[in-house]
Amino acid sequence: MSEPLPESIRDEEQLEELLSEPTDGAVNALKQVQGDIILLGAGGKMGPSLARMVRRASDAAGTSRRVIAVSRFSNEQLLEKFACFGVETISGDLLNEEFVDSLPNVPNVIYMTGAKFGTSGDASLTWAMNVWLPSLVCRKYRESRIAAFSTGNVYPLVPIDSGGSVESDPLEPVGEYANTAVGRERMFTYFCNRHQNPTTLVRLNYSVEMRYGVLVDLAKQVLAGNPIDLSMGFANVIWQADANAMTIQALADASTPPYIVNVAGPEIFSTKEVCERYAELFEQEVTFVGEPAQTALLNNGSQGHQKYGKPRVSLDQLQIWIADWLKRDGTTWSKPTHFEVRDGKF
User: What pTM does this model have?
Assistant: First the structure.
């Protein structure tokens, strides 16, 4: 960040400014990447800040381009927000083949669409969203550069002292959702190899900001005085702005066959220690149940850090910000991560 980190994040306006502040690396990447950029599924948790960062980084790079966000956009306020960012919007259902075919042809695509929660109740929809839809998009954008979001769930649970899964590790998904995530990657890889269009697979684990994420889930439990389940005893997270910046840089590095990068924070943290730190910040007690398992879903993000630079915001800084945000009754979203799930049933 060009400015020192604030001691406290004042409100959502300042938060969204921070989440969309591009790194020098993101700006340089968009000097290399030519042409318009479309973000598919941009109405979710990360989409608005990533689209805005693409806009800001493009402007800082002196590159004239359209930035287009696509989603159902049931929230009119979100449409107004994108317009204020200088981002165009197209509303529609990406599961509609005719709608996908009607989208503008652009040279750069960031694919953000996916389904995770509710897999156990409607598995067919999850397979459609995560496997069939990528094939539609790949046929539509067979000549475009694509960065597609994936997830750390494609990896198995690994020993907590392993350092986390690396990009070359075999994929051994746990549960039906994770299997569809591998299916999504396989579709992008198949069409990348078939059409020879450069592609990146971004394995994210886990993005966090003040309104949602693993750290927010844990902080809210501590603040409410709930016992903390330690069965998933370790995890890693990354400040959403850093995940956004790494994604933009990874778009520039797209290749054939696909370039694969883990996007994760450098610290593997103990759930117990994180909650004890929150108890200290909230000045209250915390209790625990269960024992930490000796395996967890962990991504090793060192390849991305070496290539794009270490994340700008540390784990402790995130905890300080989140605790302060919650003590001031800052807005949070009802979008729990369910990171504690070990059987893959979401």
Answer: 0.95
| DSSP secondary structure string for all residues of 284-324 | S---EES---SEE--B--HHHHHHH---SS-HHHHHHHHHH
Phi-psi region at 291: left, alpha or beta (left = phi > 0; alpha = psi -120 to 50):
beta
**How much is the average pLDDT of 47-54?**
98
Q: Does residue 1 have a pLDDT over 80? A: no
Please tell me the CATH code under which domain 12-208+240-265+297-309 is placed: 3.40.50.720
Residue 2 has pLDDT above 70, yes or no: no
Residue-level pLDDT at 75:
86
CA distance 28 to 166: 26
Whether 119 shows a pLDDT value over 60: the answer reads: no
Query: Mean pLDDT, to the nearest integer, of 159-179?
Result: 96
Q: Are 237 and 318 in contact (CB under 8 A)?
A: yes
Q: Interhelix angle for 176-195 vs 133-140, to 10°?
A: 20
Cβ-based neighbours of 69, under 8 Å, separated by 6 or more: 38, 39, 42, 43, 47, 48, 51, 82, 87, 88, 89, 90
Tokens of 344: 């893959």
What distance in Å separates the CA atoms of residue 36 and residue 87, rounded to the nearest whole number? 11
d(CA 315, CA 209): 11
pLDDT of residue 123: 87
Nearest Cα residue to 83 out of 67, 95, 60: 67
Helix (H, G, I), strand (E, B) or coil at 107: coil
How many CB atoms are closer than 10 A to CB 219? 26
Which residue ranges make up each domain of the chain? 12-208+240-265+297-309
End-to-end CA distance of the chain: 35
